[in-house]
Structures are given as structure tokens and as C-alpha cells.
Amino acid sequence: MSKVIKCELDTDSLDKAIQELEKYRQGLENKLKMFVDSLINAGVQVANIRLSQTVGDSTDANLNFAFGVWNGDIVSAYIELGGKDALFVEFGAGIAYNTGAQHPLASKYGYGVGTYPSKYGHNRAINPGYWFFRDPPGSKNVVRSIGTMATMPIYYAAETMRNNAIMKATEILAR
Predict the structure, then answer these.
(1) Would 2 be classed as within a structural domain?
(2) Phi, psi for residue 133 in degrees, rounded to 5
(3) If you average pLDDT over every residue of the chain, what do you get?
(4) Residue 114 lies in a domain
């Protein structure tokens, strides 16, 4: 998006050029916010769909997000997965639902299918397809778990935003 501003070297012409530059700057800021909002909207849609596909024992996960927010000269936004089961929903838990496909970033963060990181090292499912845990931790209440499918809402939201960035920028600049 280019703009040509012509002016003469007199006060009135320079004032008009300054006003045009300010209008152009404001238009760029609006387009930047539209760009960020467009990417976040696409990411939130994908994350919501993935989150709604969660299968298994872990259901306490929710999306939090903010569209373009100005902080001085910087516009920012975020999508986050919250709730006590957020990691289970993102990375999966147990081998019942996660045979084969694994979160592409699992090993980077120390997670893996059929494992659960704890202060005692990685715990492995002791029975094929399920394991037991105490809820709350330390209590006598033993729960049998078949795990949770890795639906990866944040991974796919980020992938969607990355894959659409150039297309969205081109689309918005053309307006």
C-alpha cells in the first residue's frame, strides 16, 4: 500500500500534507488492528472446534482470548487454554485415545502418549489403556482413567494463524 503526497513549500500546503500523513497513519493502524483481529478470529474458531471435540476424562478446559489491544504503538492479542485439564486436552493423556498420533511439540515440553510428568519422574500407564490416580492428590479417592484425546486446540489455532497471515495481510491492505 503506497501513498503519494504532493505539496508545495508553503505553510498551507505543508499543513495539508501533514493532515494527509496523519490520516494515512491512522488508516495503517486500523488495518493493523483488523489484521490482528482477523488472525485471532480464525484461530479462535479453530480452537473452539478442536476443544468441542475433546473426548475422555478431562473436560475442564476453556478458551480465553483477546482481540487486538493497543499498548502504546503495539497491538497485541492472545488465545490461551485454561482450566485444570488444559494440558490433557492439548497434549493428550493416556494411551486409550492416543495410539499413534501425538502432539508435534510433546517431546519438546516433556510430554508423551501414555506418560504423565510428576515430581517422581514420568509415570506410565500400568494397565493397557487406563491408569488410576487419587483425586484430590493424596486422598483415598481412587479414580480409574482412560485418558483424554489430544485435540490440540492451541497448536491448530497457531498453525491456522501462521498459514493465513500473508493471505489476511494482503486481503486487508487491498481494502
Answers:
(1) no
(2) -145, 165
(3) 84
(4) yes
Determine the pLDDT at residue 107: 77
CB 5 within 8 A of CB 17: yes
Cα separation, 57 vs 54, whole angstroms = 9
CB 14 within 8 A of CB 7: yes
Range of the domain at 48: 11-173
pTM of the model: 0.77
Q: pLDDT tens for residues 109-135?
A: 777 665 555 555 555 555 556 677 788
Report the b/e string of 100-130 with b at 16+ CB within 10 A.
eebbeebeeeebbbbbbeeeeeeeebeeeee
Coil, strand or helix at 31: helix
Q: Give Cα separations from 82 to 54, 114, 169 (angstroms).
A: 14, 22, 29
Q: Is residue 4 part of a domain?
A: no
Domain count, the chain: 1
Above 70 in pLDDT, residue 145? yes
Q: What is the mean pLDDT of residues 26-46?
A: 93
The set of residues, in sequence order, having a beta carbon less than 8 Å from that of 102 and lying 6+ positions away, is 92, 112, 113, 150
Query: Does residue 89 sit within a domain?
Result: yes
